[in-house]
Amino acid sequence: MTDPILDIRNLSVSFGRLRALDDVSFMVAAGERLALIGHNGAGKSTLFKAVLGFLSPKAGAISVAGHIPGTDAARIAITYLPEVVAFPRSLSGREVLAYFSGLRNAPKAQISDLLDRVGLTEAADRAVGTYSKGMRQRLGLAQALIGAPRLLLLDEPTSGLDPVSRHDFYEVIAEAAARGAAVLLSSHGLEEIQSRTDRVAILSGGSLRAVGTMEDLAREAALPTTIRVTALQGEADRLHSELGGRRLNGCRLEIDCTPEAKLALLARLGTHRDVLQDIDVAAPGLDDIYRHHSRRSDMEESE
Ligand SMILES: Nc1ncnc2c1ncn2[C@@H]1O[C@H](COP(=O)(O)OP(=O)(O)OP(=O)(O)O)[C@@H](O)[C@H]1O
Fold this sequence. Notes:
- One of its GO terms (molecular function) is ATP hydrolysis activity.
- It comes from Tropicimonas isoalkanivorans.
- Pfam families: ABC_tran.
- By secondary structure, the chain is α/β, with parallel strands linked by helices.
- The chain folds into 2 domains: 4-219, 3-Layer(aba) Sandwich (Rossmann fold); 224-283, Alpha-Beta Plaits (2-Layer Sandwich).
- Helix content is 36%, strand content 27%.
- The chain has 11 helices and 13 strands.
- The chain has a 6-stranded mixed sheet, sandwiched between helices.
- A hairpin with a 2-residue loop joins strand 1 (4-15) and strand 2.
- The protein is globular, with a radius of gyration of 23 Å.
- It starts with a strand and ends with a helix.
- The structure holds adenosine-5'-triphosphate.
C-alpha cells in the first residue's frame, strides 16, 4: 500500500475492565475508501474517537498524516461527520459552511460549489431548522469536505437517508477519494457499501476479524460462488445428474463452486446450452462474509 494517511497499529482502548478495542491494526491510504463494519458495541465509535484524539489508547499507536491524534496538525488533517449532525437551527446552510470555513481557514469561495455538490443550492439561504434529516446530513457532508481534508471520518453517514440521497452521498465520497482523501466510514448497510468502498474491515467484540477487498474476504472465508441454472422443461433431471448441485424446483438447479472453478463450470454449462433457459452467477455478498466472520467470533468466544 502506498502513502497511508491513517495508520493504526496494535490499538487497544479500555473503559475500566472492558476492552473496547483489542490489538487493532489497519491502514487507510490516500484515495482509498475503507468501510468499518461490526455489530452494535463492536467498537466502531470508540475507534473513531481514538482517531479524533478524544480517547487515550491503553496500548498501540495511531498516526494521522504522520501526526498524533489530538495535535493541531492531526486536527487540520481530519474532518468528521457524526451519525447525527446538529447545527445551529437559526443559521442558514450557507452560514454554517461559512462558519466552518473560517474555523479551518479555508477559502469561502468553495462554499457555493459544496452546496451545489450536495444538492442544497436552493435551500442554501434557508434556516437549518427547516431542513429535513437528509438535508442536514448532506450539509454535514459539505461541512466535512471543507478545506480538502486528508482524512474523512464518516460515522454511519447514510443512516436515515433515502436510496437516491444515499447514492448521491457515495458519489460525493468517491469524488473526495479521487482527489486524494483517505475515507474511513462506518456503516450497518452492508449491501450499500460492498460496491462503494475499496476495502472492508470487520470488527467484532473489539477485535479486527478481517480486512481486505471483497474478493480477499470472500477468498479468506472460502465462501462459494453459486451458479443458478434454469433448464428447459423436462431437462433438469439430466443436468442435475451430470453437474450435481441442488434441485430447487422442476426446472431450477443451484451449483456451488470455488471462485477459481467458476469459469470451468460455466464452460461445462456451455456444452448444455441447447437445454438451458437462463444462468445466474452469484458471488458471495458482504452479508455472507460478515455472517461467516461473526459466526467465527461467536465460536471463538464460547471456546
Ligand atoms: N465511555 C464509555 N464508558 C464505558 N463503556 C463504553 C464507553 N463508550 C463505549 N463503551 C463500550 O465500549 C464498547 C464499544 O462501544 P462503541 O460505541 O465503540 O460500539 P459501536 O461499534 O460504535 O456500536 P454502535 O454500532 O451501536 O454504534 C461497548 O461495549 C460500549 O458499551
